[in-house]
Write a structure and sequence with these properties.
Number of domains: 2
Family: Belongs to the methyltransferase superfamily. RsmH family.
Number of helices: 15
CATH superfamily of the largest domain: Vaccinia Virus protein VP39
Helix content: 40-55%
Strand content: 5-15%
Radius of gyration: 21 Å
Strand order of the largest sheet: 3-2-1-4-5-9-8
GO molecular function, one term: rRNA (cytosine-N4-)-methyltransferase activity
EC number: 2.1.1.199
Distance between the termini: 44 Å
Catalytic activity: cytidine(1402) in 16S rRNA + S-adenosyl-L-methionine = N(4)-methylcytidine(1402) in 16S rRNA + S-adenosyl-L-homocysteine + H(+)
Order of helices and strands: HHHEHEHEHEHHHHHHHEHEEEHE
CATH architecture of the largest domain: 3-Layer(aba) Sandwich
Structural class: alpha/beta
Number of strands: 9
Protein name: Ribosomal RNA small subunit methyltransferase H
Shape: globular
Length: 353
Amino acid sequence: MNWEGVYHTEALKAPEAGAKVDALVSELGDDAVSASADAETDGAVSGNGFNHVTVLLHETVDMLAAGPGKLIVDCTLGGGGHTEFLLEQGATVWGIDRDPDARRAAALKLARFGSRFKVLAGNFQDVESILAQQGVSQVDGLLADLGVSSHQLDTASRGFSFREDGPLDMRMDTRAAFSARNLVNEAPEEEIADILWQFGEERASRAIARAIVKARSLAPITTTAQLARVVESVLPRKGRQHPGTRTFQALRIAVNGELDALDALLNSSVRLLGKGGRMAVITFHSLEDRRVKQFFDLRSRPEIDRPEWPAPRPNPDYCFRLLSRKPVTAGEEELSTNPRSRSAKLRGVEKII
């Protein structure tokens, strides 16, 4: 298999074993795995149905300025928490999700809103084609609440979590052919190390990759518990955060192509939003937040300047107004009731051209 085609490497290679990489990790931001750690420890899920604690609910809905006559696309339908509140404000909401569990649960939960709510199957990276199939090329709002849901983490059979043993899977779309089991058991050692470094910012990426290859040479790694034990053999447990947090995050991002999907969604927003339309994005780690921040910042500057230019020039990508200079984060009340919100950052823009 061509592993370069499975995930986006960005030419960021895992550091050599023993390399001093603390400075780079500090530059990248150490919050890259905090959301996963929070969810593993604190995710609030009940035993029945697709339950997920919605973060920054009021802040997100306010940012989208939802109301009657507005068409909002929730690109990460999940448990339907944001969508439900948007519908209660009178908006029409179409929810996209690649997880069939989420779609089924949302369809039941939100059926009372009738024709103002529609469930669409797919990956949000294809949002333009998904909407085109519905005869729509422009919307009033786009919402994306990124990352893994509490339901996915809590359901052992989905294979996302080291908290409970389950098949090593991690596919958000259970119909997809490529799973974490394929990656862990088939990818070359160097590729695994690069994934762990790039998508998990794991400083022990090479040592963990080496341990994975050694373990799979004895027997296939088929469960989350097996993988967690391999990681713990390299990084003994200490403190609150499980040593496998970064590894599990990295594999999940690679398996689901999450960062490439985010890039595609951001680019689509420029074409899909009409003048006055708004986009709100909630991120949970620095890899996502950095992408969103840079995309929004670049397109919210009327002019751009470079040292070699005699004067600033008009920005050909200018089309947005930032809705907040800094990311919106959870207040004390939400933090006390939903620890998962600790890592959430909300950014938004309004289309002005």
